[in-house]
Amino acid sequence: MIHSLFVINSSGDVFMEKHWKAVIPRSVCDYFFEAQNKASSMDDVPPVIETPHHYLISIYRCNIFFVAVCKSEVPPLFVIEFLHRVVDTFRDYFNDCSETIIKENYVVVYELLDEMLDNGFPLATESNILKELIKPPNILRTVVNSVTGKSNVSETLPTGQLSNVPWRRSGVKYTNNEAYFDVIEEVDAIIDTSGGMVSAEIHGYIDCVVKLTGMPDLTMSFMNPRMFDDTSFHPCVRFKRWEAEKILSFIPPDGSFRLMSYLIGSQNAVAIPVYARHNLYFSPAGHGKLDLTLGPKQTMGRQLENVKVEIPMPKVVLNCTLTSSQGKYAFDPVSKVLNWDVGKIDPQKLPNIRGTINIQNGATAPESNPTLNVSFTITQMAVSGLKVSRLDLYGEKYKPFKGVKYITKAGRFQIRM
Amino acid sequence: MTDSKYFTTTKKGEIFELKSELNSDKKEKKREAVKKVIASMTVGKDVSALFPDVANCMQTDNLELKKLVYLYLMNYAKSQPDMAIMAVNTFVKDCEDPNPLIRALAVRTMGCIRVDKITEYLCEPLRKCLKDDDPYVRKTAAVSVAKLHDINAALVEEQGFLDSLKDLLSDSNPMVVANAVAALSEINEASATGRPLIEMNAPTINKLLTALNECTEWGQVFILDSLSNYTPKDEREAQSICERITPRLAHANAAVVLSAVKVLMKYMEMMGQDAEFVVSLSKKLAPPLVTLLSSEPEVQYVALRNINLIIQKRPDILKHEMKVFFVKYNDPIYVKLEKLDIMIRLASQNNIAQVLSELKEYATEVDVDFVRKSVRAIGRCAIKVEQSAERCVSTLLDLIQTKVNYVVQEAIVVIKDIFRKYPNKYESIIATLCENLDTLDEPEARASMIWIIGEYAERIDNADELLESFLDSFQDENTQVQLQLLTAIVKLFLKRPTDTQELVQQVLSLATQDSDNPDLRDRGFIYWRLLSTDPAAAKEVVLAEKPLISEETDLIEPTLLDELICHIASLASVYHKPPTAFVEGTGGLKRALPSRSGEEDASVMATGGASASVIPEPGSLIGDLLSMDIGGGGSTAGAGGTGNVDILGGGLDILGGTAPSAPSTNSLLGDIFGLSGTSSTTFHIPPKQVWLPAPKGKGMEISGTFSRKNGQIHMVLTFSNKAMQPMNQFAVQLNKNSFGLIPAQALNVPNIPPNQSLDISLPLNTNGPVQKMEPLTNLQVAIKNNIDVFYFACVMPIHVFFTEDGNMEKKVFLATWKDIPSANEVQFTLENIECNADGVSTKMNQNNVFTVAKRHLEGQDMVYQSMKFTNDVWALAELKIQPGNPSVTLAIKSRALDVCHSIFAIYDTILHN
Asked: Which residues in chain B are contacts of A72 at CB distance < 8 A?
């Protein structure tokens, strides 16, 4: 299983290491650096690297590489999932994950890693349980601890860890009982030059914040539960009930968690809520012209918000002189990325950006046009049409406050120009 | 306040400062000091000098401090074993603590202290903890057994911890079960025998399946992985297990999903392929696999590598999901390349239009590697889907018009393959190709272009000029290009002999006189001789019809694929290599797909057992064999280099094969050399036996025998390539053996294309390292090729070791016979011998068993014979033959008693032949 973990920043320094079995010397990372040097960008470093005696399985998140060292045949996804869980936990504890933050919290990080993995086997990875074992740092607690001499490490065994509902601790009490559900859908799409859809799918998930007293047993049903092409659930969901009745029945964890995620697209038609009229051409003389207009489509009357456009320009582009009818634009001459922060789209007055693009002297015009990356949000609508019809509470007597919110976002939404 | 304050250094020296703080009376100060120590350790600073001071802090009520000290101990105990002993007492005490958290912490930490002396003290507390009332302690103790096994395997077995672990499989708590499974499978993997520790039977499986529903996601992965090692009794059982596993496909954790896919894929093999259950299960597999592709790029990568295997085994599963493999421009390159691979595999008549327009899009991207692979992909589509070939060709032509150098070169390479696949169909584009001649600077593109010119020389008016232009720089070209140019010009000459004579002479002299490359020289000489002796034959050879190239040259060979399917979700599935090929120290972990009937397996076993006694534990031998260095690398490198040209040269493969001296692709030649072991020689050569059956050799079948010619022992081998890929880079090794046999030369086997076989005779010397084998004539052989290293054992007929100078003088014979004690005499009876004393004499003489004297005594013929082994051991034989009686008594005397049985066996064989 996982022998060691090295945390490496983007300039190639190992700034943290943890060994769960014998200490493996840092030199093993040289193989990783070799691969890193070969890759054209940080994202391109292959996640599984073979060395004569070890296997290096890495993830790249928050501009940091987390490199796990394994000695024997392991399921690589197991390691990758675990590493992502580690990053999630750090973000959960420290609100962010960066080199500085890890360095500032070395001891907690070390304690966490030790709690999460024993001899290479995951021990406790549920955020609820970890938080009971090791309290997240905050200023108040630090002050209190230094006065009372207490520590942020729990002295008792977390109650939930071995029960039938390991995700929930017992004895939860709230004065206001509330449960909020966000149905979030992300549209992944590739649109070709002429506006035709090459591929499109919706990745949806239901994120919850549940603050309910005692051991509540919830059921949630949908108006149209048969539209999912694939679903995956939090372990709390009773799968048999879903199979039989298409009803989500579960005892929720305390706090925030992801109840389910789903995929719609391979078999169903997907609505594309935005379109682009674009014109980009490079003349052989050494300059180019860009004219881009965005507009809403199939939004059922809802407004497109937080619209942003990202265009990775070809390497030969020096600068862009553009005027936009709304929002600001910026061109980064180093990364050659043009960003246009559009904001809201008013269907009456479509946002437009146009102008000239300057190309390096003497360089030939690029062969192909770049791809537009669009991001947007639509509130109060799930683009798939999914609707929650009922939410019921059993097992407890109080009446909780319930709320469901729908959001549609762009996932990896790309328009070829 | 943050932990970065722990790094502030003082002038006096950090270590000194920390030492005094650690010994402070104030608890608070102590704790802060330990934190500083841990922080230094985390960044890789050496703070081992503080060991005694930190260890002193261990006796504390403060759990955080205790944990920190334990963290420190785990890291440094190994470097300070004597000091670590000091900690043992506290551990033992903590294991009795009323707080389960502390008990668990203690047993957990003790296991991490990798010091031999400490392990003995660990046993008692561990035993207690394995039976603890608290499941948290039990589950921690289960893992500790695996840790202890890693440090001292023998101790774990002595103390019976394995049985305790097995008991935990029936624990009431699912987490304990999951951890016990995990620990057992880790111990299993580490153990040398590779024999499974858990006997998988119906009750165990039931327990695991129950725990599967309740334990954590990580536990589920362990349980699913052990389930994949189990082969259900029958279809019904497989089906019911599948039903219970299917819900795992809806798990949020990608590792659980993929491990579940593995078990299902394996068990599906056991069911009728058209069964309703299999069909519906196949349908259920697609959505979760698609969902994996929307996760993080690292997860996508592993998923894609596995999907690549899955669709080769069951193409139907994802046949409608082509779109999800379309590449997004900001995918990491490793994801892009994998997606391309899968797109080609899924390409079919129905979706080819879509695929092509995508590929064309990719071919204009920025990343060079990706663009190249996209262009290649277009060519592969043309070869795979015949209906699309025309569209592919026109797409490629469009790409050539872009004049982007590497796109043009790549396009020309694939167009050459399209020409091979669909001859006389697209030659109209040759003119366009020729326009780009000057821009080609990569060997493969140049070679492809030259091949096209040579192949269609009669249609290209200025073919001679074009080829001549290449000839100017002949010396500077890559070998691949040189070979191709040579062949192309010869083709041209055969097609247009009148005006190209000068050209062909020029190239032949360049190839044969000015080149150092043996491949090139050989090929040049062959052409030269062919052309000068029989131009008609040359035409038949050089312009022979070429075999069609196969549609899917890149498919994984079926036996390997089946093995890899059993390893879905593991590293093997990412590398597409069996674990034995890269994991260190794995014993017999080879897995095979269960077969539906089971008959097939049985027959393979039967032939395997009868023909060659396969070395029981390859693991134990690997070290031995590998430490001798595998020879023949040098000679096979050349063969590897020309691999590409073979495809181009088409009919020339056969000629290429005859160039080196020993091997011959033609078994007729073998006959002439007397290699194939028919009765044309008088020396007895046992018939060939299959030593390495194809399933064991990943498609390579080896059969062979031994012979003796001109005083040298030969191993006569037939290699048959039953795999779907060419085999090359052969090498051979013999393990130490009773007679010191070693190869006299490297194994000279060229590239063997699929479905071809090759006879070869390998001369052996007897001056190698000697080690007595049981039986004496056992020989263990390792054969390597580009796929793997294979081990097998064979039995040598003993008479190949009889030397030609084994005729003993009569007097010496008499003296020796008396000299050897009668204890060293062994008597045998040979039954059903039909020939008389003279017949026996001549037969044995031909096999270097010499008749020293013959006598007639009381109606019996007495024949005295002698033989000498290569290692100068003598053996003497006395035969009593009664005319008319088919039974012959054979008495053998030798100082080395061991040989007698083998000698008897060979008498028996030869006289019955």
From this structure: 186, 189-190, 583-584
pLDDT of residue B692: 84
Q: Model confidence over B829-843: pLDDT tens digits?
A: 888 877 788 888 888
How many angstroms separate the first and last alpha carbons of chain A?
46
What are the tokens at B310?
């899955």
DSSP three-state, residue B655: helix
Question: For residue range A349-393, what is the model confidence (pLDDT) as tens digits?
Answer: 999 999 998 888 777 777 678 889 999 999 988 988 899 999 999
> Which distant-in-sequence residues (6+ apart) come within 8 Å of B668 by Cβ?
none
Among A190-194, B217-221, B224-228, B871-875, the range scoring the smallest mean pLDDT is: B871-875
B869 secondary structure, DSSP code? B
10 Å CB burial of residue A124 (0-12, 13-18, 19+) is buried
How far apart (Å, rounded) are the C-alpha atoms in residues B255 and B262?
Answer: 11
- Rounded to 10 deg, the angle between the B297-313 and B558-565 helix axes is 130
Distance of CA B575 to the CA centre of its chain: 11
For the CA atoms of B856, B860, B866, B867, what is the dihedral angle to 10 degrees? 140
Q: Are strands A178-191 and A401-416 parallel, antiparallel or unpaired?
A: parallel
Q: Answer yes or no: is pLDDT of B616 > 50.
A: no
- Report the distance separating Cα A1 and Cα B419, nearest Å: 50
Q: What are phi and psi of B780, to 5 degrees?
A: -105, 130
Angle (CA) A106-B86-B43 rounded to 5° is 20
Question: Contacts by B461-465 with C-beta closer than 8 Å and gap 24+?
Answer: B463/B492, B463/B496, B464/B492, B464/B496, B464/B499, B464/B500, B464/B503
Beta strands in A71-216 (DSSP E): 117-118, 121-122, 178-191, 197-211
Range name among A243-247, B250-254, B555-559, B612-616 with the lowest pLDDT average: B612-616
Residue B179 token pair: 């951890």
CB proximity under 8 Å: B 312-351 to A: 320-321, 323-324, 326, 328-330, 332-334
CA B161 to chain centre: 35
Instruction: Give the integer Cα–Cα distance in Å for B482 and B25.
Output: 83
Inter-chain CB proximity B255 and A59 less than 8 Å: no
What is the reported pLDDT for A84? 94
- Burial degree of B195 (CB within 10 A; 0-12, 13-18, 19+): exposed
Chain A residue with CA closest to B404: the answer is A367
Radius of gyration of the CA atoms of chain B, in A: 36
Is there a contact between B106 and B94 (Cβ–Cβ < 8 Å)? Answer: yes
Contact (CB<8Å) A76/B99: no
Q: How far apart are CA B683 and CA B762, in angstroms?
A: 17
In the block, which residue shows the tokens 């108006």? A223
Average pLDDT, stretch B511-540?
87
Option in A18, A229, A243 nearest B287 (CB):
A229
Report the gap between the CA of A151 and the closest CA in chain B (Å). 6
Token pair listed for B879: 């035969």
Residues 6+ apart with CB under 8 A from B343: B322, B325, B326, B355, B358, B359, B377
Task: In whole angstroms, give the CA distance from residue A158 to residue A167.
Answer: 11
Question: Of the candidates A271, A261, A268, A220, which has an alpha carbon nearest to the alpha carbon of residue B294?
Answer: A261
User: Residue B538 in contact with residue B527, Cβ under 8 Å?
Assistant: yes
Helix axes B63-76, B100-112, angle to 10 degrees: 10
List of chain A residues with pLDDT < 50: none
The residue among B83, B72, B133 whose CA lies nearest residue B104 is: B133
Residue B880 φ then ψ, to 5°: -110, 115
Beta carbons within 10 angstroms of residue A5's beta carbon? 21
